[in-house]
Amino acid sequence: MKNLPFSRWTMALGALIALGGSVTSVIPANAAAYHTVSTQKIKQTAYHKKRRSGAIYNKKHTKKVSNLTTHPHTTWYATKQAKLKHGKSTGIYLYVQNSKHTVKGWIWHGYLKKGKAPFVLTKAKAAVALDAKTGKVVWSKHANTARPIASVSKIMTLYLTLKKIDGKKSNWQHKVKITSRGLVSMSRSADCGGFHFKLNHRYTVKQLYYAAFLDSSNNAAIALGKWVSGSNGKFIRKMNAQAKAWKLGKAHFVSASGLENSDLRRFGYAYGKANANKVSAKDVALIARHLMTAYPRVLKDGKIGSMKVNGQLCYNYNNLLKGRKYYRASLKVDGLKTGYTPLAGYCFVGTGHKSGKHRVITVVLHDINEFTETRSLMDHAYRLSSMNN
């Protein structure tokens, strides 16, 4: 289509699209050109997109670099300003680039507004960052909406277990006899099990604690609940009573483990009318804060990558720990609990204590990128002045 008059070029372009042809972002050579009237350097200034439309071009506007719609949460840094003339129109354009310097070019100033792009988590359906010292919410996304939380539920089970143990060695060493065939069957289940139980075998409370905490064993969590309260139902009522005592208005439990009743039913452990534990991201963070404040040992235990329990390997799936794929030394992550069911998605409650800052607690719910988004959320929380010691 080279050398066609501009009006005929646009008509030909439409015909090409109609025929299913591909279109590049290069403007025809004889289209109305952009001419530089003046250019000046400016102090580096942060901008972010003002509206959905807009694109970045080379200075002559003969090649499109990128659409703003593909960078909805990017902060752009402007270092030059130019007055460009296009036909009879004259406009102010900014030379911008992203923080990684991988996208750069010129854009009309009206497509941007000053300031860094607001912090967002794109994958999490709900999330929160909490200052562990003050209990103040630092950042949130749908944080007051109760959602299924899968095995993150176990932080409440761990709290009530540690409360029952009360620091007594005799309680840690107390032996729990497994007489439930349902729990044995659950332990052997490909989708619900993990830490294998033997019928009529006795496990210490300490073994069940580590199996539930590190290996996220559902059967171990239920066995702990029965030890704490005498029965599964009584323990779940205790979970809800504790949530009420803490004034957690967006928390309701039907399971000690985090499994939904649709799974628990086949093992004989369904409870209540609702299908799943539903807790808001904020209330999860507050439960974690109560747990860590009352029983700081969970921070030491939460850093254990794996350990043998009754001859079985219990593996901690927190991939922000040292030596794991998403580890970052500066974040000082030392906990706390992962979770997943198809209904709840990937969930994670994390905590870290960066040097010179308050400890932070983060929660992401139904987040396919739970570890990368937790890292971003922790970084953002630490950048806020209120997190300084």
Helix fraction by DSSP (H/I, runs of at least 4): 25-40%
Largest sheet: 5 strands, antiparallel
Average pLDDT value?
Answer: 91
- CATH evolutionary superfamily of the largest domain: DD-peptidase/beta-lactamase superfamily
Kindly provide the name of the CATH class of the largest domain.
Answer: Alpha Beta
How many strand segments?
Answer: 19
Which structural class do the helices and strands define?
alpha+beta
C-alpha Rg (nearest Å): 28 Å
Tally of separate helices: 11
Number of domains: 3
* Beta-strand content: 25-35%
Query: Order of SSEs, N→C?
Result: HEEEEEEEEEEHHEHEHHHEHEHHEEEEEH
Low-pLDDT segments: 1-31
Enzyme class: hydrolase
EC number: 3.4.-.-
Signal peptide: 1-31
Domain Peptidase S11 D-alanyl-D-alanine carboxypeptidase A N-terminal: 122-367
Describe what is shown at a glance:
The chain is an alpha+beta fold.
Task: Provide an overview of this structure.
The structure is a single chain. The chain is of the alpha+beta class and 389 residues long. The chain has 3 domains: 1-30, no CATH class; 32-114, SH3 type barrels (Roll), CATH 2.30.30; 126-387, DD-peptidase/beta-lactamase superfamily (Beta-lactamase, 3-Layer(aba) Sandwich). 28% of the residues lie in helices and 27% in strands. It has helices at 6-18, 154-165, 169-172, 181-187, 205-213, 218-229, 232-245, 261-264, 281-294, 297-301, 370-383; strands at residues 34-49, 55-57, 64-67, 76-86, 89-97, 104-108, 112-114, 126-131, 137-141, 147-148, 175-177, 202-204, 251-252, 278-279, 306-309, 312-315, 333-341, 345-352, 360-365. A 5-stranded antiparallel β-sheet has the order 6-5-4-1-7, with no helix packed on it. Helix 2 (154-165) crosses helix 6, helix 5 (205-213) crosses helix 6 and helix 6 packs across helix 7 (232-245). It is elongated, with a radius of gyration of 28 Å. The relative contact order is 0.13. Residues 1-31 form the signal peptide. Its EC number is 3.4.-.-.
